[in-house]
Amino acid sequence: MIKKLQRNIFPTIIALSALSVSGSAAFYSVSGLSKLFAGASLEVIIMAGSLEVAKLVIASLLYQYWNTINKLLRAYLSIAAVVLVLITSMGIYGFLSAAYQETYQKLVVNENQIEFLENKAKFYEDDVTRYDEELERISGNISTLSNAKATSIQVRDTSAVGGLRSTVSTAELRLAQSRIGVEEENRKEVNAKRTVAADSLQTIQLKILALQNSSDTVGELGPLQYLSGLTGTPMDKIINILLLVIIFVFDPLAISMVVAANFAFAQANQKTLYGEYEDEVPDDLWDDYDDDEEDDINDIEVDYDTVEPEEDWKVVDEDEDPKPKRILQKGPSRHRVLFTDGTTRKVPKDDNTIRYL
Question: Model confidence at 275, in pLDDT bands (50, 70, 90)?
């Protein structure tokens, strides 16, 4: 029992690996085909699932009975297996491409939102620039008006000597102070508008930053975007190449693993002519035989008896081909056979010459 378990450990690992790959391929294929024919998704799931199981059975059947199965049926099953592999690959391609399109649409929506916010941010940025220029102009006017001074003038005065009197005119100064007050009010108003525009610009920029960093599509499609920028190839073309590589490896690998599992089990459980597993035949079978105890051939007494040929005997042509005598070892497709001339050959197990041995 222990030897049987040890003998089947690695074939079991191969079989489990084959089932995992086949199961994954079947799941993706069935999901992809159900999305492709969304109007009858349940019916497509049942049909595709049965075809996936049949594909694995066909692969095992063709491996085990390749030499004995009818040639026409063998050809049909081979073509059916290839067609089923193509159908599975198409389903996997549909599933993966749909998943990519869903993620890509999220990326497009995210990029459109960012573009809209960037245009809006540009509007507020222009406002801030315009308000800064206006504030600079107002500051220049206030600085100019602040330089206004009282001017000395002469007025007519009969009481003064010569009839003229020197005095100071403050009209320009009062006008300048009045203008400065107006400019100060304008500066306060413009400054308030600039503050609102700057706050709006900052809010929009924070939204853009949040969309760029917190979006799930950044992590999902980031490598593809990097490859697209690095190679100058459109991202759709890169993902198409990647999907083709996946589908040309996925399901053919599943079929190959199923065939490999059949081969591994056949080799691990191969029996001898006497129905024994090869690893159960003891290696020291002849160890107990002592060569020293071998009798001298000269000491062996032989009884001689003359046998007369019977009348119904016939002479056999020496050139006649040797006939199979017995099967020494059975294999999955060929048996090792002992012939009458003492030679051993490997003969297909469905050969008529050994069918009744």
Answer: low
Q: Who wins on pLDDT, 199 or 177?
A: 199
Closest by Cα among 77, 85, 74 to 52: 85
Query: Which DSSP string do the residues of 303-324 spell out, in sequence order?
Result: -----PPPTT--PPPTTSPPPE
Would you state the structure tokens that stand for residue 285, as one six-digit string? Answer: 């079978």
What is the mean pLDDT of the segment spanning 14-40? 82
- Which amino acid, one-letter code, is at 120? K
- Answer yes or no: do 103 and 240 share one domain: yes
- Residues above pLDDT 90, as percent of the chain: 3
Question: Which pTM does this prediction carry?
Answer: 0.52
Whose CA is closest to 259, among 71, 61, 74?
Answer: 61
Cα separation, 233 vs 227, in Å, equals: 8
68 DSSP 8-state letter: T
CB 95 within 8 A of CB 29: yes
**What's the pLDDT score for residue 79?**
93
| 163 found inside a domain | no
In this structure, the answer to whether residues 130 and 27 fall within a common structural domain is: yes
3-state secondary structure of 269: coil
212-235 confidence digits (pLDDT tens): 776 665 566 667 777 777 778 787
Q: Where does a domain end: 269, 287, 322?
A: 269
The residue written with tokens 């002479």 in the block is 315
Total Cβ atoms within 10 A of residue 357: 13
Looking only at the bridges linking them, the beta strands covering 324-329 and 164-169 are unpaired
Strands 334-339 and 164-169: unpaired
Exposure letters 296-313 (e unless 16+ CB within 10 A, then b) = eeeeeeeeeeeeeeeeee
Note the pLDDT tens digit of each residue in 241-255.
888 888 888 888 888
| Rounded distance between C-alpha atoms, residue 111 and residue 205, angstroms | 14
Cβ-based neighbour number of residue 56 at 10 Å:
20
Of 116, 64, 141, whose CA–CA distance to 332 is shortest? 64
| Final residue belonging to a domain, choices 252, 269, 286 | 269
The answer, yes or no, to whether residue 8 has pLDDT greater than 50, is: yes
- Return d(Cα 147, Cα 255) in angstroms, integer: 94
